[in-house]
Amino acid sequence: MSNPSLYNDLNIREGAPLSEIKAAFRKMAKTCHPDSAGPGREDVEKFIKAQTAYKKLLATAVAKNRARRKGAQEREAQPYLWEGRREEGLDIFYSLSVLRPEAGEGRRLVLPAKTWEACPRCLGEGRTLTRIGLGGLHRPTLCPKCEGRGSIDHPTKLAVNIAADQVGRGRIRLRRAGLYHALSGRRGDLILELAWVDRLTKTH
């Protein structure tokens, strides 16, 4: 949030660009700097205020430019917007808005994903035996390691190369990239639901 008083100290409009801020400070330095204006107390205080305002506004502008460049780099590196995720059985659905490439070109997406392996504690069963009391009796309970899922997941990245002839398609299915059912050894698919756009704009 901007501070109007900082702009007032430089005699410029609120929200002025960096070039205008620099020009205003140079102008005030010529007239209010102690070396130029002499020992007048009013001019010295005016210069100190202007110098303080300039430093704060300059730091804010630099931070905004850095954030803008970082955002542009991230958008260039990841040419899509994440819209949502849902599961149906072992299949996972990703909803994405994807930046349309130049004509005749494909698109590479690096998506968040997971790999799965059978839980080493319950061996994919999802349940383990828990000892009851001091006797030799046991009862089946949910595996505490995998919480009954039978599998352990590990965050990773999935690189997807969309060929030029696939650009514009609304759905692409990636076989055996979905959820893993450890007990049966079955693995679902990952389905990409794509909206191709000419500009990435977050709407929510």
What key phrases describe this protein's structure?
HSP40/DNAj peptide-binding domain, 204 residues, 4-stranded mixed beta sheet, 4 helices, alpha+beta, 2 domains
**Strand residue content:** 25-35%
**Multimeric organization:** single chain
Instruction: Return the string of H and E elements.
Output: HHHHEEEEEEEEEE
Structural class: alpha+beta
Count of DSSP strands: 10
Coarse shape: elongated
Would you give the CATH topology of the largest domain?
HSP40/DNAj peptide-binding domain
Helical content class: 25-40%
What does the average pLDDT come to? 84
Count of discrete structural domains: 2
Walk me through what this model shows.
With 204 residues, the chain is an alpha+beta fold. It folds into two domains: 4-77, Helix Hairpins (Orthogonal Bundle); 80-197, Urease metallochaperone UreE, N-terminal domain (HSP40/DNAj peptide-binding domain). Helix content is 30%, strand content 33%. It has four helices and ten strands, in the order H-H-H-H-E-E-E-E-E-E-E-E-E-E. The protein has helices spanning 4-9, 18-32, 34-37, 41-77; strands at 80-88, 91-99, 107-118, 127-131, 138-142, 151-162, 171-174, 180-181, 186-187, 190-197. Strands 1-2-10-7 form a four-stranded mixed beta sheet, with no helix packed on it. Helix 2 (18-32) runs antiparallel to helix 4 (41-77). The radius of gyration is 30 Å and the shape is elongated. The protein starts with a helix and ends in a 7-residue tail after the last strand. 16% of the residues are buried. The mean pLDDT is 84.
